Amino acid sequence: MAQHIGPQTGHPPLIAMHAITKAFPGVLANDRVDLDVYSAEIHALLGENGAGKSTLMKILYGFYRADSGAILHNGRPITIQSPHDARAVHMGMVFQDFTLIPAFTVAENMALFLPDLGAVLDISGINHRIHDLSARYDLRVNPRAMVSQLSVGEQQKVEILKLLLADARLLILDEPTRVLAPHEVQALFQVLDRLRGDGYAIILITHKLKEVLECADRITVLRGGRVAGTLPRAEASEPQLVAMMFGKESPELQVTRQEVHEERMTPLLELLGVETRSQGAQTSLKAIDLKVCSGEIVGVAGVSGNGQKELGDVFLGMVKCTRGRKLLFGRDATNLSVREVRRSGVGFIPENPLTMATVPFMTVLENMALTQTWRYARLGGLRMDLQAIKLDIEEGLKKFGFSFSLYVPAKSLSGGNLQRMVIIREMMHNPRLIIASYLTRGLDVQSTIAARQSLIQARDGGAGVLLISEDLEELFLLSDRLIVLCGGRIVGSFTPNETSINRVGQLMTGAEALHVTNP
Amino acid sequence: MSLLSIAGVLSSAIFSGTSLLYTTLGEVIDERAGIVNLGLEGVLLVSASTGVAVAVVTANPYWGVLAAALVGGTMNMVLGYLVIHRQANQLASGLALMFFGFGLSALIGRPYVGAKIHALPRILLPGLSGLPRLYTSLFSFDPLIYLVLPAAVLAWWLLFRTRWGLGLRAVGENADIAYASGRNPRLIRYQALFVGGLFAGLGAAHLAIAYAMTWTEYMTGGRGFIAVALVIFSKWHPLRAVVGALLFSGAVAFQLLLQSSGVQVSPFLLDTIPYLVTLLVLMIWGGTRKQSAPASLGRVYHGTE
Amino acid sequence: MSRIPDQGILSRALGSKAWRTAARYLSMILLALLLFGAILLISGKDPLQSYREMFSSTLGSAYGLSEVLVAMIPMLITALAVALPSRVGLINVGGEGQLYIGAAFATWAALTFPDWPAWVLLPVMALLGIIGGALWAFLPGYLRAIGLVNETITTLLLNSVAPKLIGFLIFGFWHAAMDTDKTPNFVPAGRLPTFWGTRVHLGLIIALVLLLLYWIVMKYTRWGLEMRAIGGNPQAAKRNGIPLETYLVTIMCAGGAIGGLAGMAQVSGFYGVLLLNFSMGLGFMGFLICWLAGGDPVGIVLMSFVVSVIMTGGNLLQLTRDLPYAAINILLALTLFVVLARPTLLRGEKT
Hints:
heterotrimer; B: mainly alpha; two-stranded antiparallel ribbon; 13 helices; C: mainly alpha; ABC transporter involved in vitamin B12 uptake, BtuC
């Protein structure tokens, strides 16, 4: 580990934020936050969802303006009013949603951000520079490849290279390991280590404790918009950080694991040898044999982009299988339409409620009716029974303990409330089979607990649940059985007791495939 | 079918295809920046009428060509103002521009209907001087025809080998990313529209000044819409647009040949062949493959906060 | 507390909104008139005099008003032909073509069955018009539903094909003489009845009924809900079980059917013959009116009225003042520009 230039040596920090305060309607996102970063340092910004990390970095990078406070660069105050200003002082940020243009090549994407790009493009020159940089930091990519063809990990490399090529000296990475598999995370840390050795300053936004303890030099914990503490890694420990992040014991979810009895199993859903054909950047499924029985939660683990979305879509009927059969409740359902699948008692909670499950401008009330329009249609479709919808919703709200307004447009709901809305809608009519995809992604602690509770309730009531998630802890917590998806194939199948998170992580990245016995 | 008639079809295709190609190239540039121009008919008509007017008044066809090109750029600016500054719907604005062009061109051209223009010189394609006169007349092309292929290469080079073109394509794919890279998407779209309009104006100039050599109301006959279809056909690539324009005008020339050689099919039905061929090719190639179209085509850019 | 909002409050809100809407349209028209007045001045005419004549000839006399209504009829229907598909996100620029084909089908009935009584012939013609327009829209709808080609392009291309087919039919099938460009006249049984001795024909009633039906369907019925869901988020709608592809094809055909009906109304109610190139941009005009009105039925009626006043008044100006027809196009375009350039005025309902 390289020595960092710290307070002892008398140099000012590369970037210092003093008493930054930012309020949005209804919430104080940052409350007199202090943060500084030195050259050749990795500084982790730790905190739960909603603690204010993203806001702080967006202020630093010029997307927002702080209400009060100052930003200093090498000891001198500066104003940052736009990303342009931020880049002018050699800051670069890699966002959670990559800012890459899929239709462009890697080189074109990088050229777009080069400050010294010539009027006539020097393609081979740019390729050379990319090659040199990527070799130096082991961020290997093919400059001529189209971004749409790259994996998520490779795209992240491009994002980092883009910053380096544009002469950034301070790199801000927002949740970089969210989309990476365990061994890719290790590779990233090695890259960061090398960068630090060359004097780069790095801010790492994350909520993953283990990673922080592995690679950061200093750690700042935010909680509720305030700094809960800043400490060097040597002085930090996991329980201590947890206490700083939550301020109290983190609420535990009580889960009783059901014993799996072979005899009383009635398969609700079976996929036999199912294959699909992919379009564009999607993954095709190959030779999927899967069973979900009544009264069990089957977890599907895998790095995002390995077939999870296609799996959910194939269940629902959005995507047709090119081979194999699908059985629903014992009957052949290979060619059923989405409507027919749902009508037979299937609920589907997709990974992104706003874009995949709701119509943003329609009211919550109308959105809730969409999955079952036939149920609420009167006079052969001439009228919709809004009153009946309302009653059903209110029942659902009571059952789950949620509450939100019914007459506002769906897009005005927060992410957590939107997810709750979808959960109620899908569970409102006691489905026999539920497919939940990335159920708790982006949710705060309260919503996460409520969502998981609802799945358990459903399972205890005899439903079968297919839970697709990238959160291994969640999967291990909730699943009765676990399968691992990699590259569109099932590469492992076991109960949580039989395996470990690490093993599953290995399988997820294709480290090896277990010979799969009949699940 | 005699060699002469084949040569005739080829020559006719080149003559009528040139204006189509210029127009298509202009629209490729516009759409690469994310803007669809359904008002091309109007733009072409106003450019053509102005070009003819200037050519007559100055007794010099070159001034006419220049005027047509500039007017094309200016008309596109009108679309730009509506679509970029006022954030109006692109399709509706284009159609309104089309009506505007119908009216304005008729007004401008009224005194010049049927007027005679000093023609642009016709230069024989080099290397063919040994052929009999029948053939040489077919292959004597005006300067605009000779310039059209270089123009296509120029369009390609601008889009794919310059910094400006990179930024333009970025705006057409994702204006927010373009903005994040320090560019001004609005300005770039205006620039794209102007340059595209220049190309379209050249197309109008060729049609009116070099080919028909006069002005008639509504003389563009739907070329504006055909160009929009050809842009998709050529997957937004200037060099492929050459193929598309040639194919379409070749089909037109071919069916004209059929008509004149006494084929017993109604000329109206034969007239539909080029459109049906285009439709067929679109169906086979797929005009809406997401990977080909600029991702932000048709979207209004709202800017960041 | 949890009651569905009071109907009374809704209608009160609507009332004030109606006044604001009216004020908006008025200010738009005034601005356009100002611009056009400038053009008139430049070309040496007296704008005030021209306007006075234009308004008195259209709105100031019963005959003028009736002419305005006559011109409105096809616009109302073609605008609806765009509005309905737009609710599911389809862009139907093929009104021109659907108009022609519907007219052709209706003409066939009129010319083939001259002996049928009106109460049989007219509904048959209407039905054929609907079928013709739906057929012409089927291919674009299907290609869009399977994700192959955008319907904007296919409808545009088919627009160019349709008038040529009409030409073939008029000359090649119905053997019109070379010096005319139309079929023989329709028998009286094949003409939509007119009112009060003017040229206003039954098409007006048809148009208004259709608009009312459209409003009811979108607001209250199950299909309206599902269509609005598709328009708002097609992938989500599909995930929720709404049959997306079925709707896309069906509603595109429905739009085409309405366009075909407009064609039938024109040849039966207005012309009484099938005339070559009888649509002078009616399909496009419908598209523009629909978009400017935001797909709202009341807006469609208002915009059609405004455009119609301009066109009718412009016609009369041309007759009396030697103003070229082109100028009317310019005035029209200027009005449209003004409306397009003020998105804040109209953006409210647009999805």
